[in-house]
Specification:
This protein has about 425 residues and is an all-alpha fold. The protein has helices at about 10-60, 75-85, 90-105, 105-115, 120-130, 140-145, 150-165, 170-180, 180-195, 200-210, 220-230, 235-240, 250-260, 265-275, 280-290, 300-305, 310-320, 325-335, 340-350, 355-365, 370-380, 415-425; strands at about 5, 5-10. The longest helix is centred in the first third of the chain and has 52 residues, at about 10-60.
């Protein structure tokens, strides 16, 4: 049994220590070999990438040569470089790359990779590449990919289908708005918007089903209406207008919002009626939608919402009045009135839009208009005492901001802050 300075070491412990040391050395050698291999591999890939970049650049500049290295068609790195070029070139250069893509059957190769590769990363890469070079002949494969359990593949498939304006895919994409996760559904909505006017008849048909006695999920209906609004095609206005009377608030909200971009002059009377909807969200959305028309007929009805129970409705109404003909006078009247809530909403929007600052600047320069003089006079008035503290709507958001009752004149924090800000800047 070995001795070290009078200490006896058990042979088993000594063997364990020696084994550990040998294992550490072996692991160090293995790690070094792996790092060396990865370094050499990265270096080789870097050289190959540089060769491919030069070759594809030459093809873009001079056209596809008669003798092309067909072995490149098998290399995923070449696919990556080629598709990076496809993403940034256009015109004749893009046509040359399309010839190259067709000559090596790249779409077919990527479809096979998407459907049969056992490596998730390769399937995802194939989906991303196919989204870039999507064409009608691979529409079927992209529609199948919408059923993939991988959300990234589903999104890339939707991108490709939107690129080729696949009409067959639209019903399934609309259905995915409800059945998929919220994040994926938002990406799918983006792709439906990218379809543009082509998607409008299909979305309208989905909306019209509601009026043919079919059962349509209100969430799908609302999603379809929101997309129609984002596309902004006026053909959809009659269909959307009818939904302002839908029994589900979610659908009415979507319809009111959509009419701001997809509505016509015929939408104005219906939106004015919607200003009295029982749901505060519909009132708020209708006020915002009316701002897009700037019709003076909406001034008085929208101004009445400055005294609404919901903070969001008051703010949307004040913002809309900034855009509607005659709305500025209505906001000044709110500042002059005895409703602290209306004053608060008007003052905030006038401040955010720089109107108060511009008026003070004009007065300082001795060039104000009568309206600017009236505005500053109203701004400098003491805030009125609220007659009562309004409670929130039954379903109003929790961030209702009532005027504060802590100060002597009961002015709201927003009013005090904005007024102080502009007074300071003016001085």
């Amino acid at each position: 049994m070995p001795f070290f300075d009078g200490i006896t070491i058990h042979p088993g412990l000594l063997n364990l220590a020696m084994g550990t040391a040998v294992l550490s050395v072996a692991l160090s050698i293995v790690l070094f070999a792996i790092k060396l291999h990865n370094w050499r591999r990265a270096r080789i890939l870097g050289v190959r990438r540089a060769e491919y970049i030069a070759a594809v650049g030459e093809i873009v500049a001079r056209g596809l040569p008669h003798r092309f290295e067909r072995g490149w068609a098998q290399d995923p790195l070449f696919h990556e470089v080629l598709l990076q070029y496809v993403d940034v070139v256009a015109g004749d250069e893009r046509e040359e790359l399309e010839r190259l893509i067709s000559s090596i059957d790249l779409r077919y190769r990527l479809v096979i990779q998407l459907k049969s590769s056992r490596h998730k990363s390769r399937r995802m890469a194939a989906a991303a590449y196919l989204a870039v070079i999507a064409s009608p002949e691979i529409e079927w494969a992209l529609i199948e990919a919408l059923e993939s359990p991988n959300w990234e593949i589903r999104i890339q498939a939707a991108r490709g289908l939107a690129k080729v304006k696949s009409e067959r895919a639209i019903p399934q994409l609309v259905h995915m708005l409800l059945t998929d996760t919220p994040w994926v559904a938002a990406r799918i909505a983006d792709q439906l918007v990218a379809y543009g006017p082509i998607a409008v008849p299909f979305l309208m048909e989905n909306v019209r089903d509601e009026h043919r006695g079919h059962l349509v999920d209100p969430r799908i209906l609302a999603a379809a209406v929101r997309i129609l609004g984002m596309i902004g095609d006026l053909r959809a206005a009659p269909v959307i207008q009818r939904l302002l009377d839908h029994p589900e608030p979610e659908v009415r909200i979507a319809a009111a919002s959509a009419l701001g971009s997809a509505g016509t002059g015929n939408s104005i009377p219906l939106l004015l009626e919607a200003l009295e909807d029982a749901a505060w969200q519909v009132r708020a959305a209708s006020a915002s939608a009316l701002a897009a028309f700037s019709d003076p007929a909406a001034t008085e009805p929208v101004a009445r919402l400055l005294t609404d129970r919901s903070w969001w409705v008051r703010q949307n109404a004040a913002a809309a009045l900034m855009e509607i003909v005659g709305g500025m006078d209505a906001l000044i009247e709110a500042l002059e009135g005895d409703d602290a809530y209306a004053r608060d909403a008007a003052l905030q929007q006038l401040g955010l839009n720089g109107v108060i600052r511009a008026a003070r600047t004009a007065i300082t320069a001795d060039t104000p208009t009568e309206q600017q003089i009236r505005l500053i006079t109203a701004v400098d008035l003491p805030s009125p005492l609220p007659l009562s503290r309004r409670g929130n709507d039954e379903d109003s958001p929790t961030n209702e901001i009532p005027p504060s009752e802590t100060s002597g004149d009961a002015s709201s924090e927003v009013t005090a802050t904005v007024t102080h800000l502009f007074d300071t800047r003016a001085s």
